Amino acid sequence: MLPVLAGVALVGAGIWIYNELQEQSAAERERWRSKREEVERSIEWHEEQIENHLHEARLSYDFKVLIDMHYSCVKVADQAYSLLKDARKSLDKIGEAIVKTKEQREILFKRKKEATSPSDKKEIQEEITSIQQLRSSLFDDKDEIKKQRDTFQARVKDLNSKTHTLKISIKERTGTRGIEWYERLEARKASRRA
Q1: How do the domains of the chain map onto residue ranges?
Q2: Contact, 127 vs 86, CB < 8 A?
Q3: Which of 33, 109, 125, 167 is deepest in the core (most CB within 10 A)?
Q4: 17-24 own/partner pairs: CB under 8 Å, 24+ apart
């Protein structure tokens, strides 16, 4: 059975390029597809919680609740950045497949020009058509992933901004414990960079 991509039956080199793309980025694509919405919902929940806890922090300085919320937000952001890496890898692999389809198309154009038999020309043209349909599908797929990635990345940046606000709030509103926690956190960050 020939592989089908977005209703396009692939033949010849198109099959090879599509299979290579699937083999090289299948795990990342699946993680991106299956986990993105879950992490987006988690980001929304964490943003709401930050807002709620910051408001409550004005009334009550519950240090433990605030640092737990900060830790949870950092974990969600780490998971989101891992998914963004998957999206980048998928985009890179799609880009490589687009380049390969272009190279293969040029080879086929040359072969068709040199072919003498009408049946050979017809067969080569079918492969060219298949490659062109694959390229079109790959460009559409790449555009969709870029759009999803950009929206997701903006949400993650917003979460990071709110998490930073939460961190500063913990430092400024929870007394000595908050200042000490903040200093330990910054020291750990500095030691990881060194």
Answers
A1: 4-193
A2: no
A3: 167
A4: 17/97, 17/100, 17/101, 17/104, 17/131, 17/134, 18/97, 18/134, 20/97, 20/100, 21/93, 21/94, 21/96, 21/97, 21/138, 24/93, 24/96
Which architecture does CATH list for 4-193?
Orthogonal Bundle (1.10)
Kindly report, residue by residue over 84-94, the tens digit of the pLDDT: 999 999 999 99
- The pTM of the full predicted model, rounded to 2 decimals, is 0.69
Distance CA 122, CA 139 (A): 26
Is pLDDT at 186 greater than 80 in this prediction?
A: yes
Mean pLDDT of 120-140: 91
